[in-house]
TrEMBL record:
Species whose genome carries this gene: hydrothermal vent metagenome
Transmembrane segments: 20-37, 49-71, 139-161, 205-229
Residues annotated as domain Ion transport: 18-235
InterPro entries: Ion_trans_dom, VGCC_Ca_Na, Volt_channel_dom_sf
Compartment(s): Membrane
Ranges in coiled-coil conformation: 235-262
Membrane protein topology class: Multi-pass membrane protein
Keywords, in A-Z order: Coiled coil, Membrane, Transmembrane, Transmembrane helix
PANTHER family attached to this UniProt entry: SODIUM CHANNEL PROTEIN 60E, VOLTAGE-GATED CATION CHANNEL CALCIUM AND SODIUM
Annotated GO MF terms: voltage-gated sodium channel activity
Chief location: membrane
Cellular-component GO terms for this entry: voltage-gated sodium channel complex
Protein name in UniProt: Ion transport domain-containing protein
């Protein structure tokens, strides 16, 4: 007879199986394609097939969540992971038959969010998202500095260019939108040539703004994210080394210091 220990071992083996992981990823992609297919006018027979496929996908997700829960050694810690909570909520809400009720819109939105389950399945995506979240405090200061630059240039633009084209430079809020257009290179040369007809040196206004925003700030954002991503990878390597029983650099350093102290004491 299969006992609880054997069930857990088999669940762990299934959870860690690469083929099973790829199967779940494939089903998530299929789920996304089915959601997209519903936005097209399709025959009723195809709609019925999509509904049955959706039901099958939901029960497969339920099976995958159960496997992950059984494979967890400490069941109480399963829901300490935010992604486990998210996956469970998405699956549970998908099981509720609300397609023909007033909550049908909520049901469709939940099925759209099932695509995000790829983040919880693929470790590399989790690492990227965790790095982005960790970088948000530092990015906040970059965004604040960018807003200051935007505001200064918008005030200058509204002061000098409002009479040239009130639609683009009529007030500071409109000027901010125009500068965002310039930063994204959306026909910005047309805006520049229009002001250069009155102020020939206004090209320096646009070029310096583009340098500060599109180049300097973009590189700062990339640098912050890459730095946090490297820290996240180093943290994962340290955790993996600890799980494998390998000595970390800090542990080796402590052991060397202990050996040095022991040698000094022996010489005395």
């Amino acid at each position: 007879m299969i006992n609880i220990q054997q069930i857990q071992e088999r669940s762990i083996a299934l959870r860690d199986n690469r083929t099973f992981e790829m199967l779940v990823v494939g089903v998530i992609i299929l789920s996304a394609l089915l959601i997209g297919a519903k936005t097209y006018p399709i025959p009723s027979a195809v709609t019925q097939i999509i509904l049955w496929l959706d039901v099958g996908i939901t029960f497969l997700f339920l099976f995958e969540i159960i496997v992950r829960f059984i494979a967890e050694p400490n069941k109480k810690r399963f829901f300490h992971n935010g992604w486990n909570v998210f996956d469970t909520l998405v699956v549970v809400v998908s099981l509720i038959p609300i397609d023909n009720s007033d909550m049908a819109l909520v049901g469709r939105l939940v099925r759209v969010f099932r695509v995000l389950r790829m983040v919880s399945i693929i470790p590399e995506l989790r690492t990227l998202l965790n790095s982005l979240v960790r970088a948000l405090p530092q990015l906040g200061y970059v965004v604040l500095l960018m807003f200051i630059i935007f505001y200064i240039y918008a005030a200058v633009g509204a002061t000098f260019f409002a009479e040239i084209n009130p639609v683009l430079w009529g007030d500071i809020s409109i000027s901010l939108l125009t500068l965002f257009r310039v930063m994204t290179f959306e026909d910005w040369t047309d805006v520049m040539y229009e002001t250069m007809a009155v102020y020939p040196l206004s090209w320096s206004y646009y070029l310096t703004f583009i340098f500060f925003t599109a180049f300097a700030f973009l590189n700062m954002v990339i640098g912050i994210v890459v730095n946090v991503l490297e820290d996240e990878h180093a943290k994962e390597r340290a955790e993996k080394a600890e799980e494998d029983g390998s000595a970390t650099l800090n542990e080796l350093r402590d052991e060397i210091q202990e050996l040095k102290a022991l040698i000094i004491n022996l010489k005395k």
